[in-house]
Design goal:
Shape: globular
Number of helices: 10
Largest sheet: 6 strands, mixed
Number of strands: 10
Oligomer: single chain
Distance between the termini: 30 Å
Order of helices and strands: EEHEEHEEHEEHHEHEHHHH
CATH class of the largest domain: Alpha Beta
CATH architecture of the largest domain: Alpha-Beta Complex
Radius of gyration: 19 Å
Number of domains: 2
Bound molecules: coenzyme A
CATH superfamily of the largest domain: 2-enoyl-CoA Hydratase, Chain A, domain 1
Helix content: 40-55%
Strand order of the largest sheet: 1-2-3-5-7-10
Length: 258
């Protein structure tokens, strides 16, 4: 049980709903504590094959870090806060199980950063994305300066970062920030339907897709070499043998994650 999140598992998909609608689901310390625990459960619980992160209510995904916690922070405390947020968002990005954001409204500041740490994003028509930190005399601290450039390119990212402007869902789609825009009432159905497809694939191969794609943005790794290694690892799995046999026998594969 979490204080600030709702969680439910259906067909091996865990839905995490950030649940502070009266504060537009702003990320405070408690949300981070709960999210951290929920992510540990994702790794440990074999019933969970993939995850949707969304926000409670129809107005906001997450309207940012909780600004009411900023006032008293000194430089060192602010750095510790950014590090804590980054560590938790790395946990999302580096998860072996797919984690997608169903963005149901404002995704601003830390909310945009949270959605960008997810493996991909689906938005409802009313979604709005932005990094308005400059309005507060700040920059993003939870990886936003890096992931926004990675996802939409430097020119568009710097415009959003420096202006604090918001973009709507259609523009986010055009920028490649989101994969789909759907009606709000269809958002979770769409997210579940994509994850149902992914969940039917070999889990170790799915995990290797995440690891190798992440290597593109990791200077400490040679992505091509990692791909060779992960490709080889797949050949040592039962699921690869099952996948190839099932194809040749013209039947559906039954993957076991081994
Ligand atoms: N931190 C803390 N509280 C927040 C918040 C945030 N990031 N975003 C919204 N809230 C709170 C508001 O203070 C308000 O609380 P109150 O009813 O107790 O006064 C409540 O959520 C509703 O927000 P409100 O501003 O009244 O809604 P709105 O429809 O007029 O505006 C936004 C919506 C998203 C445009 C506006 O809330 C906003 O600009 N939020 C801050 C976005 C931001 O700068 N995020 C980056 C932080 S680094």
């Amino acid at each position: 049980m979490h204080q600030t999140l709702l969680t439910s598992i259906e067909n091996n998909v865990l839905t995490i709903t950030l649940n502070r609608p009266e504060k537009l689901n702003a990320l405070n310390k408690n949300v981070f504590t709960d999210l951290d625990k929920a992510l540990d459960d994702v790794e440990k619980n074999p019933e969970i094959r993939s995850v949707i992160i969304t926000g409670a209510g129809s107005k906001a995904f997450v309207a940012g870090a909780d600004i009411s916690e900023f006032g008293e922070l000194n430089k060192e405390q602010a750095m510790a806060m950014a590090k804590r947020g980054q560590d938790i968002f790395f946990k999302i990005e580096r998860s072996n199980k797919p984690i997608i954001a169903a963005v149901n409204g404002f995704a601003l500041g830390g909310g945009c950063e949270l959605s960008m740490a997810c493996h991909f994003r689906i938005a409802s028509e009313n979604a709005k994305f932005g990094q308005p930190e400059v309005n507060l005399g700040l920059i993003p601290g939870y990886g936003g300066t890096q992931r926004l450039v990675q996802l939409i390119g430097k020119g568009r990212a710097l415009e959003l970062l420096m202006s604090g402007n918001m973009i709507d869902a259609t523009t986010a789609l055009q920028y490649g920030l989101v994969n789909y825009v759907v009606k709000q009432e269809e958002l979770l159905t769409k997210a579940r339907s994509i994850l149902e497809t992914i969940n039917s694939k070999a889990p170790l191969a799915v995990a290797a897709c995440i690891t190798t794609a992440n290597a593109v943005y990791d200077e400490t790794k040679n992505g091509f070499e990692l791909e060779i290694k992960e490709f080889g690892n797949c050949f040592a799995t039962e699921d690869m043998k099952e996948g190839v046999t099932a194809f040749l026998e013209k039947r559906k594969s039954i993957f076991k994650g081994r």
